[in-house]
Amino acid sequence: MAAPLAVMLTVVLAGCTQQQLQGWMPGDGPDTTNHTSGIMGLWVTSWIVLLGVGAITWGLIIWAVIVYRRRKGQTGLPAQLRYNMPIETFFTAVPLILVLGFFAFTAQEQQKIEARADNPDVKVEVFGKRWAWDFNYLDEDVYYQGIQIQPDENSDVRGAVDQSTFPVLHLPVGKEVEIALESRDVIHSFWVIEFLYKKDMIPGKTNYMTFVPERIGEFEGKCAELCGEYHSMMLFKVKVESQEDYDAYIESLREEGKTGRVGGEYDANSNQPGVGVPTNESHED
Ligand SMILES: [Cu+2]
């Protein structure tokens, strides 16, 4: 059954646009990160299979409604049937196979995405804070402290924001990146839309994201966990660039004197596990 299905899908999908091929998921193709093609594959395959199940189900319902409708002059109940073993076995087994199949493919994909690198090329620690972001480039020992994005005073468009105030996370293309996610106050969520993945930032706990950005470009990011009054302004950008451009950016931070790491001493909650009792010294460094 798989072979003719594959042939049919190839023929049908050959006429598709890129947007249709990726199931209208955001992004300009499957290779934004090393994970995006797998996620798109899982999504597109799932809805094609489920659309097939839906079409068969709707078809059978409509067929039964039309063929077995009450006709003129009919009275009483139709013949009452029960216990059809083949049909009952069929409609128990098929959904079970589908559910187990979807579960297995999803678990497999998730395991690939969640696997941590033994030795990532780039390590960045990202702090979410109400309502902006801090980035610590751990290997290079430099940092960037974001401020909340500002409204664009010169624009007539309501809600327009000043693009130059976005915090920007720089990443070199083609390198394995590990992002450590932290929060300074409440639960936030780190979401780069076109990377097709988001993960919560939880106070007192470190979460990790591991991926290889594969396409140079600028990608929109936002907080995906309602975190207070200006949650909707908690935006950022990810700039994926060549190694040379990345090195130049890191150097520019160093020249600005932004060396070191802005760590837990800037947290709004000073009584988190692992942070310890706040002292004056810890706030001075
Ligand atoms: Cu937030």
UniProtKB/TrEMBL annotation:
One of its GO terms (biological process) is ATP synthesis coupled electron transport. Keywords: Copper, Electron transport, Membrane, Metal-binding, Oxidoreductase, Respiratory chain, Translocase, Transmembrane, Transmembrane helix, Transport. Pfam families: COX2 (PF00116). Its main location: membrane. It is found in: Membrane. GO terms for molecular function: copper ion binding; cytochrome-c oxidase activity; oxidoreductase activity. It catalyses: 4 Fe(II)-[cytochrome c] + O2 + 8 H(+)(in) = 4 Fe(III)-[cytochrome c] + 2 H2O + 4 H(+)(out). It comes from the Bacteria. Residues 257-285 are annotated as: Disordered. The keyword Heme does not apply. The chain crosses the membrane at residues 42-68, 89-107. It is a multi-pass membrane protein. One of its GO terms (cellular component) is membrane. Belongs to the cytochrome c oxidase subunit 2 family. Subunits I and II form the functional core of the enzyme complex. Electrons originating in cytochrome c are transferred via heme a and Cu(A) to the binuclear center formed by heme a3 and Cu(B). This is cytochrome-c oxidase. It comes from Lysinibacter cavernae.
